[in-house]
Amino acid sequence: MANIQQVASLAGVSVATVSRVVNGQITVSPKTRIKVEQAIKELNYEPSMLGRNLRTSESRILLVLIPTISNPFYLEIIRGIEDIAISQDYNILLCQTDTNPERENIYFNLVRKKMADGIISMDPAVNIETLVALSEHHAIIQCSEYTINSGIPFVSIDNEGASYRAVKHLIKLGHEKIALINTDEKYLYARQRQMGYQKALEEHGIPVDQGYIFHAQQIGLEYGQQAMKKILDMDEMPTAVFAVSDLLAIGALKEINSLGLKVPDDIALVGFDKIDFSNMTNPTLTTIAQPMYKMGTLAAKMLINKIKGERVESIILDHELVIRESTSG
Amino acid sequence: MANIQQVASLAGVSVATVSRVVNGQITVSPKTRIKVEQAIKELNYEPSMLGRNLRTSESRILLVLIPTISNPFYLEIIRGIEDIAISQDYNILLCQTDTNPERENIYFNLVRKKMADGIISMDPAVNIETLVALSEHHAIIQCSEYTINSGIPFVSIDNEGASYRAVKHLIKLGHEKIALINTDEKYLYARQRQMGYQKALEEHGIPVDQGYIFHAQQIGLEYGQQAMKKILDMDEMPTAVFAVSDLLAIGALKEINSLGLKVPDDIALVGFDKIDFSNMTNPTLTTIAQPMYKMGTLAAKMLINKIKGERVESIILDHELVIRESTSG
DNA sequence: CATGTAAATGTAATCGATTACATTTACGGG
DNA sequence: CCCGTAAATGTAATCGATTACATTTACATG
Hints:
The structure is a homodimer.
Chain A: H1 4-11, H2 15-22, H3 30-43, H4 49-56, E1 61-66, H5 73-87, E2 91-96, H6 101-112, E3 118-121, H7 128-135, E4 139-143, E5 154-157, H8 159-172, E6 178-182, H9 188-203, E7 213-215, H10 221-232, E8 240-243, H11 246-258, E9 268-270, E10 287-289, H12 292-307, E11 315-317, E12 320-322
Parallel strand pairs in A: 1-2, 1-3, 3-4, 4-5, 5-11, 6-7, 6-8, 8-9
Antiparallel strand pairs in A: 10-12
Helix pairs in contact in A: 1-2, 1-3, 2-3, 5-12, 8-9, 10-11
The structure holds a DNA duplex.
């Protein structure tokens, strides 16, 4: 493993010249450029990023904080981030916090220790105080889950509006007893989606029954199942269920199916995110589509601009209601 | 952002002493240790990994190569890798090649340029020549998909045996017309699983009909659907299907369901990997369980040992047949 | 041919740590 | 009080690049 010195001496030039060749600068004569390139080839030289990184004091690594990769919702976002990152010579460190503050802290430390140049946080459970404090000296963007007035730029969708549309769709189909499978209301998206749910009901003169609102501990198939188990145990069962995540909806669907009930005849079902599996279930799932790839690319661009020191504005993207079998015989 | 110099001068000691305090070495008197710690706190000092990494010429980053994170099969493996990595102060760079040689090369370059200390490759489509060449100077482990006699240590399962058991299970249930949804035979696991399939058939005197063997271009829900579409178009439809991946099986199931056929009555179905969703389908999927988390932890441990320069032996782990509704009314 | 200017190349400081080796300090025993 | 040894601390080289600034070279012009 040769270093720049050895290349320089083999080529009979200074390290500066080698560096200039490597970095493709113009001020090198063709003759020396060739000499240097030969030496590089001969020694199999690859510039060490460790040296370069120290000198330029950047790591060219972006940290992406997600609660867990088990939720396919993040897949396309990550793909978007990755595509932009790679095109700009960055790499991404994908960090699952698993809602574990210790893990989170390990990852925050990577930024503090300059092992990463910035953070895209998608973790709803992130410690927002720490994140804001970090954002004073480091480039940080929130994606999907965000915080109002934190000063941290974000890219997300109109959760309340999306939720409103989903529930309105159910109401138009004639449903009045509509349950909500939400997650913990400490998360902004959970509050916003619940707001949309309530707004739709109220607008149509349907009273909001707190007994119809369920809170899953987390997003996950099994939590959807659990919630649906409770719903199916109710005296006055709802005729429709809106889950704030496809994973919850798919878990719920599993529970409905295994009791022999029919979707949508016995119970209609709407999810959120349009993950790939939502089209594989039987019946297929009506859901809200988010522009996930786009969101990822934007988040990455915003972060890179922020790293460059530019001002960055937050963005709200459009969503879409995708009507499938679970709400339409 | 203070550096070690500033801490040293504020504490009135040399940088060496600060470094010793930071790295928790014994040869520092309690008095100076306290002085230094105060200075560190006062200046909000965080040691830069860039400096350290250059000096120790390691990046403490492990590169994990996977074809795509869309396949939940990798989730638990990644979790295993991550847990070990973090416990040993490493971080992982998760790299999706998307079967794109260009991407792959970008990632290989990270190792060449010392941005990563080693590679765990799980990509069946990896360029094995390049990987072997790299392994001469860099620590590399293969996980799940491997290469015989390449000199690269691996951790995997007995694909042929697992496949054999799955198909034998179908035969015992009385099936004789059993189709195989495989992937491209250029992958070792595909060949091994096909071998197991053939072995089971032959052992029971069932002739292997090449018309029953289908090749999906890739692993993915839609490819499973496509393959099943062809199968359902056959004159002499099989009574059972074994897919070499749960994703393929779930796609296939979707196709069967939407034609109104019943699993397992009309067609029995077996998948491979036991991903979470395989228990959410209707009916639930009989499948082969791989010890994915374990595989991940082992791969990580092997890689770290390899980085340390130790000799590392390959490992074959046990698998398990999980019988569920898709093969048993 | 001297000279000025631009192009090409070189010198050496620098990024921020670690660490071998050197030096100083502390302290117990004679 | 001196000395030897161990403990504590310091000095300075080093990792491998980048780059400001200095120097050399090339070449056109009068």
